[in-house]
Amino acid sequence: MKKTIILIMLLIFIFSLTGCMFVKDNTKSESYDKSVEILRCFDEKDVEGLKKLFCQHTKKDTDIDSQIDEAFGFYKGKSLSFKFAYNGGIAGSWRDGKAVDEHIEPEIQDISTELGNTYRIYYHEYLTYEKDEKCVGVTHMIIFDENTDEMIQIGEYVY
Predict the structure, then answer these.
(1) Is the pTM of this model over 0.70?
(2) Under a CB-based contact definition with an 8 Å cutoff, are residues 15 and 7 in contact?
(3) Which SS3 state, helix, strand or coil, does residue 104 take?
(4) Among 21, 100, 129, 157, which one is least packed by beta carbons within 10 Å?
């Protein structure tokens, strides 16, 4: 009888663990797609396409057009390969069982271009920001030139 009870409890425990594995978080996949879009915008010098990814706050409170133009001048060539890093997933805070701040900080690493340059692009994005909905979206992006250790930023950190 004890063995049966232990076996049933063990099976319930195992099924509860595997149930957690079936919960799918689309955020990583969506972030990967956004990273691919960012690279496309840099490769094609698509100002409007890149600008669409930024939150309303950043588009309103910064000179984003000139910052994007400057970043496009900084980034030389078209990307050939890259690595995507999700950097720990969603972070933030909850209040009364509800997300009030959810953000991610993905990184596009080891971006190799046809001209032999290597870059890294880091960006911060609010998925939820109850304090100010105008901050939902990419708040800022930093582009690092791995060959020269120079960097350039688009937008600003919002908190």
Answers:
(1) yes
(2) no
(3) strand
(4) 21
Name residues of the chain where pLDDT drops below 50.
16-24
Cβ contacts of 145 within 8 Å, gap of 6 or more: 74, 117, 118, 119, 151
107-113 and 79-85 beta bridge pairing: antiparallel
Backbone angles phi, psi at 105, to 5 degrees: -135, 70
Distance CA 119, CA 146 (A): 5
d(CA 139, CA 129): 11
Residue 54 DSSP symbol: B
Residue for token digits 């890259």? Answer: 82
Residue carrying structure tokens 């582009």: 143
